[in-house]
From TrEMBL:
The Toprim domain, residue ranges: 236-326
Record-given protein name: DNA primase
Domain of life: Bacteria
Matches recorded under InterPro entries: DUF7146 (IPR055570), TOPRIM_DnaG/twinkle (IPR034154), TOPRIM_dom (IPR006171)
Pfam families per UniProt: DUF7146 (PF23639), Toprim_3 (PF13362)
Organism: Donghicola eburneus
CDD domains: TOPRIM_primases (cd01029)
Sequence segments annotated as region (Disordered): 104-123
Domain DUF7146: 124-229
């Protein structure tokens, strides 16, 4: 049997209107009329100022077009009858009363809705760990090509660098993201757990960074943590950029190196226990020097001896590319303490 959108059969609803006897009274029919299908409306077109038109809408329960008084706009349906007879005004209560009259069951309302599974948020340590796990080892990838174009052949013994062929990138000021190849660096804490990642988007041939803005972006919890490129020792060298610190490893492979990723994070890196000597590799800019002073002061407070390593040019990767690793090694030899010169290649 045809039903309306609320699940109540149309024909019983129309018959109930007839039982209510409102069709027997023409004036009542003008206000509360649920005519049978194809029943023509009352002919009231004799008045120039008053006529009846068939409404474009349907009765809520029976789905049959209403007759509407064009002058007053009055019309009615089964719910209007129930409202007039019972005084019920709330629409849900009217529907419940109509279903009771028609012998229809009340809708079953679930006790509680199952909570939707929350979407894993982006930018968290968990999201960073997923991205790093989905990346590939660096050997034979565009990330290796990129580092070699920067004069770097030592990629770190900790496996902190990986490659992702389709890492999402959103241009500054845009809302749409585009997948691009990227070098992925793991930012870890003292226990070795991934707390964030640093992404460097690469040119399609790997010969440099991609022509995008920004070219680099980090996610996760970075403060206090670092990209641990090589295992720590009783000495440690900490600087800003990944390429900068790998350049030091290129010149002196025996130096343990970490990258803090920025001058702001350099001053906040948590120093490992048992550290005896700290080398701070600075960039030649005011921000880098301030960060070095902050980190040096923190290290001195806990009894760690500190030395500063300073490049000839802007940073140590500039030195490596401009002068080669032998010249960089000689430059560093004059800044390293006597107790650590045995680490220099013979």
């Amino acid at each position: 049997m045809p039903t309306h959108g609320l699940g109540v059969p149309r024909e019983p609803a129309r018959k109930l209107c007839c039982i209510a006897r409102h069709h027997e009274n023409p004036p009542g029919a003008l206000r509360l009329c649920c005519p049978a299908p194809r029943e023509p409306p009352p002919n009231r077109a004799s008045s120039r100022h008053r006529n009846i038109t068939r409404a474009a809408t349907c009765c809520v329960l029976c789905g049959i077009p209403h007759n509407t008084d064009g002058a007053t706009g009055e019309h009615g349906d089964l719910l209007d009858i129930i409202r007039a007879r019972t005084g019920i005004t709330r629409f849900p209560d009217l529907l419940a009363e109509a279903r009771a009259h028609l012998g229809r069951p009340q809708p079953v309302v679930p006790d509680r809705q199952e909570p939707r599974k929350a979407k894993a948020p982006g930018g968290t340590p968990a999201a960073a760990a997923r991205l790093f796990a989905a990346s590939n080892p660096i050997t034979g990838t565009l990330a290796e090509t990129y580092l070699r174009s920067r004069g770097i052949t030592q990629f770190g013994a900790n496996g902190a660098l990986r490659f992702h062929p389709k890492c999402w990138h959103r241009e500054e000021g845009q809302t749409r993201s585009i997948p691009r190849p990227a070098m992925i660096a793991a930012v870890t804490d003292g226990a070795g757990a991934v707390q964030g990642v640093h992404r460097t988007w690469l040119a399609p041939d790997g010969q440099g960074k991609a022509a995008v803005n920004p070219q680099r972006r980090a996610m996760g919890h970075l403060l206090g943590n670092a990209v641990r490129l090589t295992p720590q020792d009783d000495i440690l060298v900490i600087g800003e950029g990944i390429e900068t610190m790998l350049s030091l490893s290129e010149a002196i492979p025996g130096l343990p190196v970490w990258a803090a990723l920025s001058s702001g994070h350099l001053g906040a890196v948590r120093l490992p226990e048992g550290l005896q000597r700290l080398y701070v590799a600075i960039d030649r800019d005011p921000a880098g020097q301030r960060a070095a002073e902050k980190l040096s002061a923190r290290a001195s407070e806990v009894g760690v001896r500190v030395r500063v390593l300073e490049p000839r040019l802007g940073d140590f990767n500039d030195d490596l590319r401009a002068n080669g690793k032998d010249a960089l090694r000689q430059h560093l030899a004059g800044q390293i303490g006597p107790e650590d010169r045995h680490r220099l290649p013979s």
